[in-house]
Amino acid sequence: MRIGQGFDAHRFGPETGDFEVRLGGVSMPSERRILAHSDGDVLLHALMDAILGALALGDIGRHFPDSDERFRGINSLDLLRRVMALAAAEGWHLVNADLTLIAQAPRVAARAADMCAVIADACGTGKRAISVKATTTEKMGAIGQGEGIAGLAVVLMETT
Q: Cα(59)–Cα(62) distance, rounded to whole angstroms?
């Protein structure tokens, strides 16, 4: 068995309005746009880094560099499926994942169960193996001031 941890953060764009963001593989309304080469899904990016890290396979920047136009705007669920295929080819599967969104907004508690289901499906595991929760920074720092959003992930991987 191996444990991995991942972290990702992205800035919000300067404009406000009615935007769609993708978090945990689920689209939801947001007052701010996430600035990113891909879709900016910080939860899935942290999850992929945790999986790759547990297996000593680098990080998502190594596998899906932002210098590669093939990944511009890509749905991070597609990237997660590629990471899971790589893990399977190496003889590993996901036992469980614990993910935390750090943001003042958007609020995700009402969509956490949907995120768990989507992530579990992409990872080939049961919904009970995926935990998604959120916290704020009590308006402290850049994230607390609404400048960005971050995600943390911890995973347990096991040989198949």
A: 5
